[in-house]
Amino acid sequence: MKYTIVFIVIYLIWIMLTWNMEPANFFTGAVVSLIITALFGREFPYHPEHTFQPGRYFAFARFLGVFVVQMAKANFIMAYRIISPGLPINPGIVVIPLRLKSPLGRIILANSITLAPGTFTMDITEDTLVIHWIYVETLDPAKAEECICGRLQSILKEVFE
After folding, report:
1. How many domains does the chain contain in total?
2. Among 46-50, 82-86, 151-155, which range has the highest average pLDDT?
3. What pTM, to 2 d.p., does this model score?
4. Phi, psi dihedral angles at 69 (to 5 degrees)
5. What's the gap between Cα 117 and its chain centre?
6. Which domain holds residue 121?
7. Are residues 98 and 67 in the same domain?
8. Cα dihedral 65/99/125/119 (nearest 10)
9. With contact defined as beta carbons under 8 Å apart, do 63 and 159 qualify?
């Protein structure tokens, strides 16, 4: 069952990315999806009890919306920092507490933080993220989490736990 779901997800991603309705594309997508599934299918975290819970899918859609808004804000803030004559930066390293237990949820959170301009995830431990922040507003872990993550961690907790 796990490999079937991985194959279907990869095949659907192929169809959405290529958006070509020719038979050769469907065949090529199936072959590529089959090869990727055979090579990496065992790495896919599969929890059968989570598969058919629509609330998790809606929470992930909410995560994507919040992420896009935070990404847009971070881009505008970084653009301001770049064009400002005084170069308003205060770089430093902050530690953010992790409440996520899911390894996939942690990776998604860390990558989401790294994708936002001005932040970079340096390390992930059992209970913290170590972040390089271009403008450190606070060293308090709870306030730093609010500034950097916003609601992302709590939404990912809904999705993966």
Report:
1. 2
2. 151-155
3. 0.73
4. -65, -45
5. 14
6. 49-160
7. yes
8. 30
9. yes
* H/E segment holding residue 63: helix 54-83
CA distances from 69 to 12, 15, 84, 100 (A): 26, 27, 23, 22
Amino acid identity at 6:
V
Give the DSSP H or E segment for 80. Answer: helix 54-83
Q: Measure the CA–CA gap between 97 and 94, rounded to whole angstroms.
A: 10
The 8-class DSSP code of residue 101 comes to -
38 and 57 share a domain? no
Sign of CA dihedral 83, 87, 92, 97: negative
> For strand 92-97 and strand 119-124, is the pairing parallel, antiparallel, or unpaired?
unpaired
The pLDDT tens digits for 129-138 are 999 999 998 8
Strand partners, 97: 128
